[in-house]
Design brief:
The chain is built from three helices and three strands; from the N terminus they run βααββα. By secondary structure, the chain is of the alpha+beta class. A three-stranded antiparallel beta sheet has the order 1-3-2. The longest helix has 10 residues. The N and C termini lie far apart (about 40 Å). The relative contact order is 0.21. This is Molybdenum cofactor biosynthesis enzyme MoaA. It comes from Microbacterium proteolyticum.
Length: about 60
């Protein structure tokens, strides 16, 4: 098991998000931290993806103000 994930592997780890949705999160800076070792290669650290998901934990559906 690699510590680095491709976008497709991130999609397998987090069901319910599309490839376009993940790209949009990258563009807006709202998703997990990522690495770009070359202009055409995107990688994610497994720990960063898990931390991002766990950081979204909520106890209510109410919108915070």
């Amino acid at each position: 098991m690699s510590d680095y994930l491709t976008p497709d592997q991130v999609l397998e780890l987090i069901p319910g998000i599309s490839k376009a949705g993940l790209a949009q999160l990258r563009f807006k800076g709202g998703g997990p931290k990522f690495l770009r070792p070359t202009p055409r290669k995107i990688l994610y650290r497994r720990a960063d993806v898990i931390a991002w998901v766990e950081g979204s934990e909520r106890t209510s559906t109410a919108v915070a103000s």
